[in-house]
Amino acid sequence: MANLSLNKAKEILLNGNVLAIPTETVYGLAGWIYSEEGLKKIFSTKERPFFDPLIVHIDSIEKAKKLTTHWTEVHGVLAKACWPGPLTLIAKKSELVHPLITSGLDSVGLRCPNHPLTLELLSQIEGGLAAPSANKFGKTSPTTSKHVLQEFGEAVEVLEGGACEVGIESTVAGVELMNGQWKVLIFRPGYFSAQKLQQILNMAGLVVDVQYAESPVAPGQLKHHYMPQIPLIIIPENATWSSVKESIESKLKSTFQNPADWILPQDPLWAARELYQKLRDFSEHGHDLILIHRNSSEISEEWKGIWNRLDKAKTLELTDNFNWVE
Ligand code: TXA
Ligand code: MG
Fold it and tell me: Which of 88, 157, 158, 309 is the most exposed place for a label (fewest CB within 10 A)?
């Protein structure tokens, strides 16, 4: 496939079509926010239900501000410190934001991605681009243009931008005022941890409590997501295939000949970067099952995003005392 020029990319989007764009996290399936046709095509191409809101990508704080009626000091400090970068900020939407984008909610997710090509494209587009990850709904997100091709075939044009460096989706954070006190709630963990956001806000002299949302209050945060083509089973840290084989086969009522036993890289940045590529590789390379070990030392905040994805991508988990959890 020939590389797409930015002019052609722009034309595709402004004509109401979808286009896969590179970001530092994962590839997005973009549609122009002012084209209802383009927005509808995002949902139909992904087979995504309309209850799952899209996030809007912009290349500047100025553009973000136009899409919200409540850009608070907290939004300002976080955007200034983290953008362009893997942080999506939820803010009350302005009337410029189509209800299809927000699934009828009164808030919108705003993100300035850190990828030079996409930033250049965004700078040439009025408003912004709505873009969920460029995969079929519920499946593993793409971190290369080849993955996008595997998901949609030639039906979707791709702006080639190399492999994504972060590898898992952005941190999604909302800002709330509770009893006169600002609070930041993380709906989806990612590269920017609660601790990091807390630090940024404190440095700016703001007293804000940053926490992870307990329950998946964000629409679209379903129990199962990011699922690979073959079953993924989380097993205890020191378990071996022979020690878990019988339990897994009787639970899944199937036999497995070629399990992939993946030891997560020790560095969480590497683990995140490799995660989705690995999940795809295993099924492509003829494995019929993926085993990942729950590592008790991997509970630090830097691992939160990775385990959040694995917990949603898993078929089942076998605990230390050999109980099953879904
Ligand atoms: O890194 C990323 O964020 C990637 C790249 C392409 O930018 N995009 C991405 O989009 O992961 P998506 O649609 O797969 O996930 C965005 C999530 C939604 O599933 C939803 O849970 C949350 O962001 N979200 C969007 N709008 C929201 C809102 N108004 N309130 C709460 N959560 C929202
Ligand atoms: Mg997604």
Answer: 157
